[in-house]
Write the structure tokens for this entry.
Amino acid sequence: MAKTPDHEDVKRPKGKVKEAAVWLMMAMLILGLGGFGVTSFSGGVTRVGSVGDVDITTDDYARALQTQVAQFSQRIGQPISTQEALAFGVDRQVLQGLITRAALDNEAARIGLSVGDEVVATELMQMDAFKGISGSFDRDAYRFQLDRTNQTEAQFETNLRRDVARELMQGAVVGGFVAPDALTDTLYAWIGERRGFSMLRLGEADLAEPLAEPTEEELRAHYDAHVDRFTRPEAKRITYASLLPEAIAKDMPVDDALLKEMYEDRIDEFVLPERRIVERLVYPDQAAADAARARLDAGADFEDLVGERGLTLEAIDLGDMTRDELGEAGEGVFTAEEGEVAGPLPTDLGPALFRVIAVLAAEETTFDEARGLLAIEIQTDAARRAIADKVELVDDLLAGGASLEDLAEEAQLEIATLDFVASVQGEAAIEGYPAFRQAAQAVQADDYAEAIPLEDGGVVALRLDEVVPAAPIPFDEARDAVAADWRKDALAEALAARAAEIKAGIEGGAAIGSFGIVDVTPEIARDGFLANAPDNLVADVFRMEEGAVSVVEGPGFVAVVKLDSIQLAETEGEEAETLREALAAQARQAISADAFTAFTNALTNEAGVTLDQSVINAIHASLP
């Protein structure tokens, strides 16, 4: 009789399938949580790679990356996200720095280079971040700073010990280099050289005939050949609802009694007494002051007296002063005329001579004259308060799913649409607000609108309707711009041809001055600057031979240049010696840097580098 399978036998095969499914789910969960572990920089994954026996930890990489992103944001003047920073290669710079540091740590461990606890303690005590109010090391401040960076004392002191050891190794590698004299001499001769030249800048008046007006066919041909110049850039079509103080300020009520109170409270702004801009030269005693006055009356210059006291005119400048502010000296100073020296007169610092630089007459702005300005202040402030009262309503409406059009109806915001281009300042007033421009650059099609406070107390909410692709501006619409662009190109071509003729004439023996007004530059350095000239002018001059003639062109610029002289670098004098020393120092630094790079590259290659790109990517994804 066949055996009837019991319950356990029937379930066993399914149990194997279920067990496999459970393990598969567990594996997926572990993989998923691996990224979570990196995000929190704790858990199983603790390193992004290693150099030899030294690990590059996830915490070290994340902290270094966040620090570099913050510094990069500061340099460009606006905050950027980690993902934006990655596009600039910030992560590669951070990783290279950590690899170099790990290579040095690995080598220090290999050769047994370290420092004792006393050195670590000394370094720790000197760090400003850990000093208290008394200016000495504060353990509470130490712990607080470490808590902020998620480090233990043991971790920080271990890293500090490694930092000092790395500095010792780096000092041993880069120290002792000397810049070769031949290198310093060559650099000095090149940098110290000067040029003298004559320049004839050409304009339309230098043409034999004025430019002819373009035909319609020429304009269309120019448009077709340069259609990229007459193309609207890609833009974001943005609808926005805004409420700006200037839009509603004029409708705010004004209380005349409050205006008069404001006027009286700020009367010092509107009623200015007579003032003097003065310089004060103080003497130690009356005898010295009297002697100085006598010398001044005998014909000595006031500047000489200032110099004899070891002072500068800036040091004795008091600015504009009222009679009362000058104290006992006020009467004497205010009876002096502009340019006169009064005194000696008594002051808190001793007897002094006062020179009157300028007399500033009394000024009075009446209430009627100031009323308009004060009213604007009151109305603008009232408008800001009114807008602030509406921000909560705007937030509530948007949170409830209201559209921008609903805001216009229910909160009396003004609604409008514009094509936003990040690189172009548009004509709409709202585009002048940095907060709006930042939000417009960041907005995406699926973003929810939110209330954005503006710098002057206004508020705006926006949405992206569509991205308008770049497209040529129709010829009829762009005709004036096409005509101006055609003329610019035609003039540049005509001037270049005329410059070539003049160049040939000068090379044939004619004087450059016979062709027009010449600007002469007796001496200029390689890093010299000439106003209203292109950047390439000086570089072109330094490529010329003495006596040579050249045509130099740039945007809106055409000139004929004749090199008059080549002046070799000065070999003697304090200025020459200072420049040579600076060049030698720069050369030493460059040689030392190259040597250190070569040393660390050799250490890295010898120790070997391993990196886990998946962990690095997970850290990137976890950072804001």
Remarks:
- The longest helix spans residues 574-607.
- The CA atoms of residues 384 and 457 lie 5 Å apart.
- The chain is about 50% helix and 15% strand.
